[in-house]
Specification:
The structure is a single chain. 36% of the residues lie in helices and 24% in strands. It is α+β, with helices and mostly antiparallel strands. The protein has one domain. α2 packs across α3. About 13% of the residues have low confidence.
Length: 252
């Protein structure tokens, strides 16, 4: 064999050897082992409120929202996480946006959340709403207490000029049962009687659409709602509505 053929044969052997080495190391790296990769994310087994900026999260989770993590999206697990979060009284900010997700970093749908939280969103909103874009709201008020709310958001439509007006029509027709449908979230821990939940609500126009609510033990509360841009807000005080609306306007 001449010198030229020897060089060619040697080069072919080197290429084959390199390919085999690459294949070997790729297979080794793919083999399962007990160590997590640096990008793996772990969350506590017990539900707890975590600030999104403090943990590695998936793309499905939103900025500026603290998340309550449930073991799974099964109703019992989710219900336990929601009940735990509703009992929390210590919050870091004047207004806190709270979402719900599983330990797998998957946001819980509004439908699953509503069922587990035992609230009802008027079904006529179904065609408008983004199932994965909603938040509980907790506001610190000037009396050193807490007010509660909910924001649900629309899908992004290219051209739907009558959307806000259609939603206002639905909201007004929903007013008679709005307290009964949302009280578990808006007044957590408050034990309403059936008569109190069925009270006649007289909504009025003001800065927001609002009504006074008769609470147990002869206390007074309120229920406010407002449509702003692509969001629908519900809150138990004017002050909390102002905080939420201003926060959304600053983003817009």
């Amino acid at each position: 064999m001449d010198k030229k053929n020897l060089i060619i044969a040697f080069s072919v052997i080197l290429v084959i050897t390199a390919i085999l080495l690459v294949w070997f190391f790729m297979k080794k790296n793919d083999a399962p082992n007990g160590n997590k990769s640096p990008t793996d994310t772990s969350f506590p087994v017990n539900p707890s409120i975590l600030n999104k900026n403090g943990v590695a999260t998936g793309q499905k989770l939103r900025n500026n929202t603290s998340y309550v993590f449930s073991d799974s999206s099964e109703q019992e697990s989710l219900r336990n996480a929601i009940e735990s979060s509703l009992q929390q009284t210590n919050f870091p900010k004047d207004i806190n946006w709270i979402g719900y997700a599983t330990k797998n970093n998957e946001q819980v749908s509004l439908t699953d959340f509503s069922s587990a939280a035992e609230i009802k969103i008027d079904s006529r909103f179904g065609k408008f709403l983004d199932e994965y874009n909603y938040d509980r709201i907790v506001c610190k008020n000037s009396a050193s207490g807490l007010d509660y709310g909910l924001v649900i958001n629309n899908k992004l439509f290219d051209n739907y000029p009558s959307l806000q007006q259609e939603e206002l029509v639905i909201l007004k027709s929903w007013e008679p049962t709005m307290l009964k449908d949302l009280h578990k979230l808006l007044y957590p821990g408050t034990e309403f009687t059936e008569q109190e939940l069925s009270q006649s609500l007289v909504f009025k126009n003001g800065k927001y659409r609002y009504t006074e609510v008769a609470l147990p033990e002869n206390k007074k509360g309120s229920l406010n709602y407002h449509v702003l841009v692509d969001s629908i807000f519900f809150a138990t005080s004017l002050e909390c509505m102002d905080q939420a609306s201003q926060a959304i306007e600053s983003i817009e």
